[in-house]
Amino acid sequence: MREEEKKRSSQNSGTQRKKWIFPAVYISAAALLLTAVVWITSGDDEAQKPNETGTVVNENGDIVEVNNLLENFVWPVENPDEVKVVTGYWDSAASNEEQEAALVFYNNQYRPNKGIDIAMENGESFNVVASMAGVVSDIREDSLLGNVIEVKHAEGVVTQYQSVTDIQVEVGDQVEQGQVLASAGQSLLNEAAGTHLHFEVRVDGQAVNPLTAFDNPLSALVEMNTEATADEEADANEPAVEDPAAEEPATEDPAAEEPADEGQVDDETESDEETSDEPADETGDNEEESPDASIGQDNA
């Protein structure tokens, strides 16, 4: 009896275990599936968050980090207190004196300066550093401009370093802010500046005043350029204001528009009738006498 009871109890316990296995498997699978869904969803949320770090593709096709949009532009020199701006940026909104000072004379022509020319107080050379982190996108030798280094940043922003020598970077290099790029040199375009650096900042190919970029983040520079572009488009779309005098019809002589005074007309008519009723001159001096009048006189 006892052996039979043991067998029955063991069979019952095995059956109960089998009943709990499948629910446990289902619960575990559901938990794993739920975990995977939560993980994928959280990954999508992270991907949808705005990324403040700009990236570009270098010459090898690799995506590299360029710079943080909150990084402020700095002067492209190691010590800004030791340099001065010898030729400023030509601004259409500046005064006539400031515009004249921002002209570069070359080949008997005056050209507007699209950047700023920086030189040492003592006229000596100095290290040229990156104004903001980025990727070197172009390096070219140019006798007119004095060699050029171009660094690409996010949001279509590019910085150019012209009139440089002893270049220490190559195309595709990722540079950090303040990293030495080259040394200041000379150029044929602006020989009067001596040893200097010509520094430009461009947004989508449009040159902007570098002085407005310093101490500001790249995001602010892009926003300022967008507002300036919108203002220019609004001015271009605004209809031209014509001369008010040209819109008004020409004023004619009032005397020509007003009819003659009725009394004056009657007087003139009466004077004409009185003149016609006067007898003809007996001496025959009236050469304009009508034929009918002559016949009446003869019959008389």
From TrEMBL:
Keyword terms, alphabetized: Membrane, Transmembrane, Transmembrane helix
CDD domains in the record: M23_peptidase
Residue ranges with Acidic residues bias: 229-291
Region named Disordered: 228-300
Domain M23ase beta-sheet core: 112-210
GO molecular function: metalloendopeptidase activity
InterPro entries referenced in this protein's UniProt entry, alphabetically: Cell_wall_metabolism_enzyme, Dup_hybrid_motif, M23ase_b-sheet_dom
Membrane-spanning ranges: 20-40
Cross-referenced Gene3D superfamilies: Glucose Permease (Domain IIA)
PANTHER family xrefs: PEPTIDASE-RELATED, STAGE II SPORULATION PROTEIN Q
Protein name as annotated: Stage II sporulation protein Q
Species whose genome carries this gene: Bacillus oleivorans
